[in-house]
Amino acid sequence: MRSLALAVVLLSLTASCTAPEPLPTISSLRFGTETRPVAIGTRGVEVDGPIDVTLAIGPTPSLVLEANDNLLPRITSETRDGVLHLDMRGWTMGVTRLKATLTLPQAQMISVRGVGNIDATGFAGGPLDIVISGAGHVRVAGMAERLTVTVSGVGGVNADALAVQDATVMTSGAGNVKLQVARTLGVTHSGIGSVVYRGTPQVTASGNGIGEVRAARS
């Protein structure tokens, strides 16, 4: 009897260790929208997943999601330490459309992990940090006093329409950065990504990358 009980325990352990991964969700062909609250004091956004975000600076924080209706419940939105985190739980199959329209009174940090994209407009001063890891892209427009960009992987930043006084750029991998700088630009680069700037800043570049650091061609 003791041997039989031991065999049952071992069999159940083996089954639990070899249990298949959950099947992916097949996206429906119906689309829906959902409005969610955004915590007061939220000052940044981080996207971790295949979500395209449109960010605008405005007086009242708000978030509207648009997606396949059976995927909306799987999009998570949570503010931690002043940053709104958007993510997609699990795997999906089929044609997906995952979009978020976000309004914040101020945005000091934008981050993309994975393949998401952020299109941000309306900046009117202050500091801004942009962080990309993976294949995501960020486009920003407006004005900022200081811009800090960190790019790893193949993602890119287009800040050509963001007028900044001072900028610091750190790149690794194949990501490219475009920006507009008036006063100072510091670049630390490794890999093959390029940094192209408009304006006449004082430029300091260091690193062992083979990517270009150069002024934009007129």
UniProtKB/TrEMBL annotation:
Q: What domain of life does the native source organism fall in? A: Bacteria
The segment(s) forming the Putative auto-transporter adhesin head GIN domain are 44-201
Keyword tags: Signal
Asked whether the keyword Signal is assigned, the reply is: yes
Stretch forming the signal peptide: 1-19
Keyword Signal attached: yes
- Protein name per the record: Putative auto-transporter adhesin head GIN domain-containing protein
Species of provenance: Roseiterribacter gracilis
Question: Lineage from the top down?
Answer: Bacteria, Pseudomonadati, Pseudomonadota, Alphaproteobacteria, Rhodospirillales
